[in-house]
Write a structure and sequence with these properties.
Elements (H helix, E strand, L loop, with lengths): L1 H25 L9 E10 L13 E5 L2 E3 L1 E5 L5 E8 L8 H13 L6 E7 L3 E8 L2 H9 L11 H12 L6 E8 L10 H8 L5 E7 L2 H29 L10 H26 L3 E4 L4 H12 L2 E7 L7 E10 L4 E4 L3 E5 L2
Parallel strand pairs: 5-6, 5-8, 8-9, 9-10
Antiparallel strand pairs: 1-11, 1-13, 2-3, 2-12, 4-11, 6-7, 12-14
Helix pairs in contact: 2-3, 2-8, 4-5
């Protein structure tokens, strides 16, 4: 009898701890629920004109073909948290002034409640200013952007760090506007590792690829072509006569081919970066960057954000194909094509 009494008494002592643990789980809100999926959505007609004024009931969300209950809905009036991320490797030296001017115009077009962070990357990532709505501070930061004469373009590392750290505890619409002229060079992340990380991010990435090498060197190259052709035979003869000391020199055609291959690889990575996050990819000359920024501003002011709590929480990282439908005829809907349900 004493043994039974002791067991009941022990169970009574343990009961409050169990209740406390249950309450902790029950009181967890959506903000800390790792199965919550956030989707940026843009809706336009067949001519590319954005459609405003839609309501929650106009949307349907499907994950792996299964309809999800929309638990969060916001229009484009929701303030932005935005990072302008600039490539300051030495190859951008000749166009950095135009980039600054275009970025300042872009900042001027932001709403009063939007907050912007300015960051640069080359051989390392630098945060020029943290998130602020003060446009004067942001523009002053852009004036302080400087070119790094050392080698290195840590593109993947920089974007990953901004997405995972700068936006870690940020709610609302999160956007990175990335401007670069080339490939990643030196990141610890591979391209595939980097893209896999982006699957778990709810940050929109707008990528802008601008050419610098051809624009800045074509004029000089054209004036030197005649002299190069005349001297090429002499160089070849000298290399043959002095073959033991000769160093292979690439022809203009070989250099152009290498640059083209690098450009194709860079564009592919930037496109995948934007497509995966429901952003957009743009290719522009440095002189047209203001137009590109204007287009980005137009889209950001016509976006919706939907959210749902993932139904299938069986796996730790279940890859899901996402589709969003709108009950309007002849519309084009863009959102993230796939996300990972982030579990506890």
């Amino acid at each position: 009898m004493k043994i039974i009494f002791a067991l009941f008494f022990l169970a009574f002592l343990l009961l409050p701890n169990n209740l406390s643990a249950q309450n902790t789980v029950f009181n967890s809100g959506r903000e800390t629920n790792k199965s919550f999926v956030s989707l940026p959505v843009s809706v336009s007609d067949r001519e590319g004109r954005y459609i405003a004024g839609l309501k929650q009931e106009d949307f349907s969300v499907f994950a792996d073909g299964v309809r999800q209950k929309i638990t969060f809905f916001s229009t484009y009036n929701e303030p932005l948290k935005l990072t302008i991320l600039l490539d300051t490797s030495k190859s951008t030296r000749n166009v950095i002034g135009k980039i600054r001017d275009a970025a300042k115009d872009f900042v001027s077009s932001l709403n009063a409640n939007d907050e912007c962070q300015v960051a640069t990357f080359d051989s390392q990532l630098k945060i020029i200013n943290p998130f602020t709505a003060d446009k004067g501070v942001i523009k002053n930061s852009l004036d302080r952007v400087a070119i790094n004469e050392r080698g290195g373009t840590l593109l993947y590392n920089a974007v990953s760090q901004i997405a995972q750290q700068s936006f870690k505890n940020v709610e609302g619409r999160k956007v990175i506007v990335l401007l670069t002229d080339g490939n990643d060079f030196g990141s610890s992340l591979t391209k595939n590792e980097f893209l896999n990380q982006l699957e778990e991010s709810d940050v929109l990435i707008y990528t802008v690829f601008f050419k610098t090498s051809s624009d800045s060197t074509n004029a000089n190259a054209a004036s030197k072509n005649g002299k190069k052709k005349k001297s090429r035979k002499k160089k070849k003869q000298a290399m043959v006569l002095n073959s033991a000391k000769a160093v292979y020199e690439q022809t203009d055609e070989e250099v152009a081919l290498l640059e083209r291959n690098d450009e194709i690889e860079a564009i592919d990575a930037l496109k995948k970066m934007s497509d995966m996050t429901a952003g957009r990819f743009y290719q522009s000359g440095a002189s047209d960057l203001k137009k590109v920024f204007k287009i980005i501003t137009g889209e950001l002011t016509q976006q919706y954000r939907l959210g749902y709590d993932a139904k299938n929480t069986a796996s730790v990282a279940a890859s899901r194909e996402i589709s969003v439908k709108v009950n309007r005829p002849d519309v084009v809907v863009r959102t993230r094509g796939a996300v990972r349900d982030k579990q506890r």
